[in-house]
TrEMBL record:
This is Sugar ABC transporter ATP-binding protein. It comes from Palleronia sediminis. Its main location: membrane. GO terms for molecular function: ATP binding; ATP hydrolysis activity. It is found in: Cell membrane. Keywords: ATP-binding, Cell membrane, Membrane, Nucleotide-binding, Repeat, Sugar transport, Translocase, Transport.
Amino acid sequence: MVDRSGTPLVEMRDISISFGGIKAVDHVSVDLFPGEVVGLLGHNGAGKSTLIKCLSGAYRQDSGEIFVNGKKADIQTPRDARTYNIETIYQTLALADNLDAASNLFLGRELTTALGFVDDAAMEAETRRIFKRLNPNFRKFAAPVSSLSGGQRQSVAIARAVYFEAKILVMDEPTAALGPQETQMVAELIQELKKQGLGIFLIDHDVHQVKRLCDRAAVMKNGELVGVVEVDKVSTDDLLGMIIAGKTPEHLAA
Ligand SMILES: Nc1ncnc2c1ncn2[C@@H]1O[C@H](COP(=O)(O)OP(=O)(O)OP(=O)(O)O)[C@@H](O)[C@H]1O
Ligand SMILES: [Mg+2]
């Protein structure tokens, strides 16, 4: 059970953002606690990605506020988000295909020797150390990431977030392009991160996966928040009902 009695890791309050008259996100409030996975569900275009892009600094909300650990956060750019230990793994993974796992893990934040040279040996050693914990079966340390499977690529992105001490992880459909085995691997990674106390926003279209991996689910429709429920207290049909009808049954509101 996630302890929700303390201060939330993230509180998004009354967030709105429009694009040329279309309200992509309309007065949405959600929060996230340490060790919690909150799933974001909703039809295509519901506003899920737009909402979390306000947290990751890709977009700036028109109105509303974000609090991190109870303090108001000013997030204007992805760099700002990182200063709040927020890391994002996008729908389309941004990895440098021709570089190996270690180079990708440290991309833009390379380790250097005392003399200021890029320290490849140290980066590979750190990469092996972190994979030992996250994905012990990973072997392709020297290969360009273009030769990795979708799941292995996801694990490189997740390792990068973990190495840089993300406390808040935003995952936008991390398993959308993966087969069942790889999806399972990412699911295990998410559970491991949760155990380590990270808070995770997980956008996913699969209600079964949300029920399995998440503590709560927030459902959006046409930019609005339909409701937030504890997944233990709902069936997948309840979740589908919320997505389609856009209404939370009274007894389910959490
Ligand atoms: N940069 C943008 N410019 C204009 N409109 C945008 C932009 N980004 C999002 N939108 C619009 O905002 C709405 C919400 O889009 P968003 O990408 O957040 O949906 P989503 O819930 O993530 O959908 P999906 O499940 O398809 O990824 C849509 O109507 C979309 O067309
Ligand atoms: Mg999206």
